[in-house]
Design brief:
It is a single chain. With 369 residues, the protein is of the alpha/beta class. It has 2 domains: 15-192 and 204-246, Alpha-Beta Barrel (TIM Barrel), CATH 3.20.20.100; 267-360, no CATH class. Helix content is 45%, strand content 9%. Strands 1-2-3-4-5-6-7 form a 7-stranded parallel sheet, covered by helices on one side. The termini are close together.
Length: 369
């Protein structure tokens, strides 16, 4: 999604864009990075990857694409067929139902005669080798999908600055599923443009290398998305390779520094318990995404990640399937406190939300995919 010409599907790629994409792909393969991941929703990406991949033997790369679930399975199959045609391949190594982020999309995927049955039929025909799903959903929905035992792998968010999905990793292990971490360098804090404070806390590593190592130190995490936009974007990630034999040696002192900074900024009790009793956004007054807002506030206070936090905050909308939930612009204090009876900080939360909104609301910031 980072190296295509345009987010507008059907746009004509420029020769320069195509050359850059091919150079990025070629360098990845030369380095031994052979998992290529795209999606129908990534604008011109599939159309550009098709001719780029055709320049290489089919057994040299593992190809994954993703398609959003639709209400009609026939439409989903037509989209899948179009993706295959654009990618110019006879089979997909990996295919994921894309963005299974809410109950409606779970139903479209799992319903009898639904989208998953299309993918399963294609697998029987040899046109798909393995089926997964990608998700930004709340943990209970992810676990529900895993527990169906109908998927081979899952794409989800989990990195040092967002550790809510430990249960997902364990459930995937129990169900013999591969795990693919979505966008650890970008959605994990825009680590390629870190704050000076975060950069200092991660020394002697860069934040990108620290986060890569932290993720890969868990043997149940199998793949990280690198989001390369140009050939040189692999250089920093490669620094993790010599560290993988004994990651704890270098991780432990950095984690102590990060944890100390977090506690000092937030206070010991709040740092340990801030997320306790916070219900999902769709269960709260005004659909305010309290958990996400407080998480972003914490990252600013602890690590000075203001640019990242403002962009994520300005992306939030109740009808957005990728960054869901309302911002803390309007809510009733009493209703909010009543909706959070199990939070140890329920009486403080209205004031914290107002503080966060003042900190994070910046209309000049343009949301990014």
């Amino acid at each position: 999604m980072r190296f295509q010409e345009s987010w507008l599907r059907g746009a004509e790629p420029s020769p320069a864009s195509q050359r850059n994409l091919e150079a990025t792909l070629d360098r990845a393969l030369d380095l031994g990075i052979n998992h290529v991941e795209t999606a129908r929703g990534y604008g011109t990406s599939e159309a550009q990857l098709g001719p780029a991949l055709a320049r290489h033997p089919r057994d040299r790369f593992v190809l994954q694409t993703k398609v959003l679930p639709t209400e009609e399975a026939r439409e989903f199959e037509a989209h899948l067929d179009e993706s295959m045609s654009l990618l110019q391949v006879e089979f997909l190594d990996l295919f994921a139902v894309h963005g299974v982020n809410n109950a409606k999309f779970v139903e479209r995927t799992l319903a009898p005669g639904g989208c998953l049955e299309v993918a399963e039929r294609w697998r029987k025909q040899g046109r798909i080798r393995a089926i997964g799903f990608s998700t930004h959903a709340p943990k209970p929905l992810i676990l529900r999908m895993i527990e169906t035992d109908r998927f081979d792998y899952v794409n989800f968010h989990h990195y040092y600055l967002y550790q809510d999905n430990h249960e997902v990793i364990e459930a995937a292990r129990q169900h013999d599923m591969g795990t693919f971490i979505i966008s650890p360098s970008d959605k994990g804090g825009r680590l390629y443009r870190p704050s000076a404070k975060l950069r200092g806390l991660c020394e002697p590593l860069s934040p990108v290398v620290f986060n890569d190592l932290w993720c890969l130190s868990n043997p149940e995490i199998h793949t990280l998305s690198l989001g390369a936009a140009r050939p040189t974007d692999f250089d920093e990630h490669l620094q993790v390779l010599p560290l993988l034999d004994d990651p704890a040696l270098v991780l432990a002192p950095i984690m102590r520094k990060l944890e100390t900074a977090y506690r000092e900024a937030l206070g010991d009790e709040f740092a340990r318990r801030w997320s306790e009793g916070l219900r999902e956004w769709h269960e709260l007054p005004g659909q305010v995404n309290v958990k996400r807002i407080l998480w972003l506030r914490n990252l600013v206070l602890a690590y000075d990640l203001l640019d990242f936090a403002q962009e994520r905050y300005m992306s939030m909308k109740p009808d957005d399937i990728w960054v869901p939930g309302a911002r803390a612009e309007r809510f009733d204090d009493d209703a909010m406190m009543a909706a959070l009876p199990n939070s140890p900080f329920r009486e403080q939360i209205p004031a914290l939300l107002r503080e966060a909104h003042k900190m994070l609301h910046n209309p000049k910031v343009r949301p990014q995919p």
